[in-house]
Amino acid sequence: MEINNVKGTHDIFGGEASAYSQVEAIMKNIAELFAFMEVRPPVIEHSEVFVRGVGESSDVVRKEMYTFLDKGNRSLTLRPEFTAGIIRLMVQNKLLITNELPLKVYYDGPVFRYERPQLGRYRQFNQFGVEAVGNNSPLCDLEVILLAYTILTSLGLENVTIKINNLGDENSRVAYRQALRDYFKDLLPKMCPDCQSRYELNPLRILDCKVPEDQKLVKDAPKLSAYLSEASKKRFETITSYLTSLGIPFELDDNLVRGLDYYSETVFEFHYTSGKGNDYGAIGGGGRYDKLVKEFGGPELSGIGFSFGIERVVSILRDDEIIPSDIPGVDLAFYVIPVGEKAQFTAHAIATNIRLLGYSADVCFDDIKLAAMFKRADKKGAKYAIIIGEEEINNHKVIIKNLATKEQIEVDQEDFENKIVELMEEHSHDCSCGCHDDHGDCGCECHDDHEECDCCEGEDCDCDCHDGEECSCGCHEEKK
Ligand code: AMP
């Protein structure tokens, strides 16, 4: 009997997996440019981490957590989000006892929520995000939003809508919650069961109810802006004026409250409808939190963070063909073709040499016709085929065929390694992958050495000067 994957999960493989890795590499690289450090908290935590951290009134805690008792009768939960676990990690490891705050970290990994699967909504999905903890300056909010915006533009997503709102400080929200309870009191019997429980637990959450009848009632509800303290208003104005001066477009959205209970002051979300008209829901969101560190037994420090849903980001990039639909699962440089049984071992030895030089190589394991092996090489997207048969072994030769141009050369085995390096360097000059026009960090290796070199004017470079030590041409003095 065939066993299928669990509902709401999805298998990621081949070109799709490469797309995920590329997107995550760009996100990580930019977070590191902003001096954020990687953290890898465990996937399972004591359930208490999320009940206390995310909050009992959130849908996530009330309905969506994968919670179970382990064999020691402990209640554990698969993380439904990262922030609470990261704050637990920071407090437990005493990372916040330092003068150098904010502590800035980034993360990347799977999260689990028992939600109704639909377009862009899974039960296991991947999040990349950041937290900056221990600094309350509006400049810290700005840096975090700027980081998210830089990631999106570096990915090629130019027309993202940034929605932003001010939830105010604790005192502002206490007054506002009361005003909302007064307003919804008589309307409550007509509202959905979720809103009825939100009324007691956290009436702010009623504002982002998706039920159309409830949305009509929300329209005339009191506005949070009328309850904000002067200090909070001023803080928010500083942030929006910084965003304006940096040319970062945003929309103010009074009803944006976000689904997790811990938020206060600034909250924001990123929205984008793909060229195909698909709206996968928010591609990311975040905000400031004031009580979380204290809740976990740490000092009274506030933090701010955001997370992107990788599934939604990749879907948009694919819809808009920013990531081509046919990127290979493996970026294969060489496909080694042994002709005849005797050549099999030599073929593997050749592949090993190529790999040690830092290039990818695969070997055909099957004893099939030459034409069929070439077909496989093409199908795998290899740049070159290496052909080795009994005759070549006896003559200490190897045949290398450029699979794009069909040009074929025969080289002596002792020159083989040099030739491989030469070919791959030539190949890097011919890069036509298009991906560097906008962002240099696609990870394709082809520009690692030469991109910034002014001295060689590109194509004709044979000065070897990038190898570093032996350079005598003077042209890289500055770059060293
Ligand atoms: P949240 O932690 O709820 O603020 O979610 C942050 C981001 O994770 C969202 O903006 C989405 O991009 C993504 N996300 C949230 N829930 C799901 C889900 N069930 N499936 C896929 N992506 C999700």
Folded structure, characterized:
With 480 residues, the protein is α+β, with helices and mostly antiparallel strands. It folds into three domains: 14-169 and 229-319, 2-Layer Sandwich (BirA Bifunctional Protein, domain 2); 334-427, Rossmann fold, CATH 3.40.50; 445-480, no CATH class. The chain has helices spanning 14-33, 47-54, 59-64, 83-92, 138-154, 170-184, 193-201, 212-219, 230-245, 292-295, 310-319, 343-356, 370-379, 390-395, 416-429, and strands at residues 37-38, 44-46, 66-69, 75-78, 103-112, 124-133, 161-166, 251-252, 263-271, 284-289, 303-309, 334-339, 361-363, 384-389, 397-402, 408-412. The strands form three sheets. The chain has an eight-stranded mixed sheet with strand order 1-5-6-11-10-9-7-8. The protein has a five-stranded mixed sheet with strand order 13-12-14-15-16, sandwiched between helices. α1 (14-33) packs across α11 (310-319) and α2 packs across α4 (83-92). The protein is elongated. The model is unreliable at 431-480 (pLDDT under 50). Adenosine monophosphate binds at residues 81, 113, 115, 120-122, 125, 127, 259, 282-285, 307-309, 311-312.
